[in-house]
Amino acid sequence: MPLSKELIEQKLNEKFSGESFVFTEHRNELTVSLDKKNIAALCKYLKEEDQLAFKLCEDITAIDWAKRKNRFTVVYHIFSIKQNFRLTLKADVDESDCNIDSVSSVWKTANWHERETFDMYGIHFNNHPDLRRMYMPEEFEYHPLRKDFPLMGIPGSLSLPKNKN
Amino acid sequence: MGLEARLNGDSFFTTTVDALTEWARKNSVWPMPMGISCCAIEMMASGDPKYDIARFGSEVMRFTPRQCDLMIVAGTVTYKMSHVVRKIYDQMPDPKWVIAMGACTSSGGMYRSYPVVQGIDQFLPVDIYVAGCPPRPDNLLNALMQIQDKIGRTKARDFQDKPLPELTVIQNN
Ligand code: SF4
Description:
The structure holds two protein chains of two kinds. By secondary structure, chain A is α/β, with parallel strands linked by helices. Chain A has helices spanning 5-15, 39-48, 110-121; strands at 22-26, 29-34, 56-64, 72-80, 85-93, 99-101, 124-126. Helices cover 20% and strands 27% of the residues of chain A. By secondary structure, chain B is of the alpha/beta class. Chain B has a four-stranded parallel beta sheet. In chain B, helix 2 packs antiparallel against helix 6 (137-152). The relative contact order of chain B is 0.16. At the A-B interface, loops of A face helix 4 of B. The structure holds iron/sulfur cluster (SF4). Iron/sulfur cluster (SF4) binds at residues 37-39, 75-76, 102-104, 109, 133-134 of chain B. The site of iron/sulfur cluster has 11 residues of chain B, from helix 5.
């Protein structure tokens, strides 16, 4: 049976009864918004359930809404090769409690995606095996894709080699 | 063939040591290809038979800094990369020259943002800046010819009073 929006809704509500998911559709692509505490279990289910088989994690990133109450949204783009179906997951994270469970145990590739998101937004991924910065130097103190980070950076925060001559 | 034909009979030939070293030096400028991003493609193109950097004696691109006189920094230098560029520059033997190839290297170019060094002259002594994004190979060759001119004006005594570079001992643990 080909995968449809209705089937996913039905399956998720069955499996996670009592949890509230918000399903939205845009240009024929389905988005599921959920509570961040469910993310690891939900991802595991989406990958391992035979009919869904979301085996490919395309990207994990985040959105900084700057002034909103839940400041960040972590976004997961996953794809089912078997069903040729693309799904987006969204979970809100607040700045005061800036962490979410890692899904790197579900998809190996999530390891680096999460490191990048941590580097750029400062969102901590719980149970991540190796949460180091991805691009910026280790001693850098800021998270450049946050909206309050100035485009030209913070003077002196990145070091240049000393001029010897 | 050339010189010895003119030296027949009692003729003799004089020159200064400076003139000889200049002539030798400027026709064998061995570049260190510091190709960091897209400009490097044009740097490679200048080595191909069409543009033929060998006409200027610079076809020997060495991938070890110890054998180079000229560093062609071709590409976007980020703060993280700047330490590597400087380390490689420090390993080149004196005298040495630097070409900043392209807009990124000269001024940060279109990357006016936090990770990119806005001009490598903040941490390297640059001799020639090459305009363009990327500069065409002929533009790079022009820069090379200017470097040759500059070398032609350099005398051995310019280096006389220069202190030897400080040696830093790297300890391996
Ligand atoms: S100057 Fe242009 S071509 Fe050269 S490295 Fe920068 S962006 Fe690439």
